[in-house]
Amino acid sequence: IFLPSFQDLFGVSMVVPLMNLHIKSLGASPTVAGIIGSLYGIMQLFSSTFVGCWSDIVGRRYSLLACILLSALGYFLLGTSTTVFLFALSRVPVGIFKHTLSISKALLSDLVSERDRPLVMGRFNAASGVGFILGPVVGGYLTELEDGFYQTSFICASIFLLNAGLVWMLPWSEENIDSREREQGKKRTDNFSAKRDCDSHLKSLTNGAMASDSPFQSPWIQIATVLKRIKGIACSDLWDIFLVRLLMSVAILLYYSNFTLALDERFGVKPLFSGYLMSYSSALGVLAGCLLGPITKLYQHNTYRLLLHSSTFTCVLILLYASARSIWMVILSSTFLAFSTTIGRTCIIDLELTIGGNEASGTLLGVGQSVTSVARIIAPLLSGIAQEFSPCGPPSLGVGLALAAILIMNVNKQKYCSNGNVKLKNQ
């Protein structure tokens, strides 16, 4: 699982930084390029929950293979895109099915215990982060060659095909996964909808998410089960967790939204230095993922308290950046922010899965991805408005949103913490 995730982000990060240049070379205006980019984000927004829930129903193996192969098709089409229409068409399968990392996280959640989950998720994010660091370097080199963008796209598609082969050869033990889910389900209160317990047919389909014959069920039954699960999430008592995720995501995106421009206006720093600083932060984020194990042990596996402290630290660091008087204060805040944001991202996912239950891990991760997609849509708009007032406007607004998230966590603290451990909510 770790190797395909590394190769996934390695391949994608080779191509994505070059896409704006390529669509411009095809004759697209900035407006058209922006519309295509927005459509991709909108497809991700609506498809992430559906695909994640679908993986709960048909099983991780088949859903992961389908997403990898259809993403490979999208990048193959991108490698043949000689017109703006073909470029836009190539983004459709990727926009709908590029949820391979979310399904991989759901699979890891099925395989490991709740106690070990933050450690494993941290290492998974670290492996993915290494691919994201190396990919742009290789992509920048390849694009210097003749027809470099097309070659890079075909290499990315080939990497996805290789990943499909690796996933197919994994030593799957679906019966063991299913039994583990049932055992964990006995220890956990169902957090979705009380109505769900009354529908025995759909419940049996849900609990049998890893059954080998699930992919061959009627598509209508699969769709009905997906909608049932999504309704269960909508009616659940998880709203505060997802709201915290939304607020913190927007706050962090506001920090990065005008990072290069703000450093130029405030300190006269060139874009090259800003790029090095962001790469430095990414490398530290990988290191933070490797340190999650000792940190969670220090907190006695109290995910909620660790999330509260990391979010508070993130808020303080964004404030430090917004009020920085020298570039050294910016470097200091970027150094520690890489740790706090990596820890916070892992904690919020672990908390969602702990409260919601592994029986619907794909659905929960899909909803979480949708929440992050909403943040990506909102953040540029808020950044543009805040930047009208000051280069420090976006991060200052981010501080306010982070404070709101911290307040929500403090208000709901008693719902989740009891004797130092996460307490599951009853419905």
From TrEMBL:
Broad class of where this protein is predominantly found: membrane
Keywords annotated in UniProt: Membrane, Transmembrane, Transmembrane helix, Transport
Coiled coil feature spans: none
SUPFAM superfamilies in alphabetical order: MFS general substrate transporter
InterPro entries: MFS (IPR011701), MFS_dom (IPR020846), MFS_trans_sf (IPR036259), Sugar_transporter_CS (IPR005829), Tet-R_TetA/multi-R_MdtG-like (IPR001958)
Membership in a protein family: Belongs to the major facilitator superfamily.
Protein name: MFSD9 protein
Species of provenance: Penelope pileata
Gene name as annotated: Mfsd9
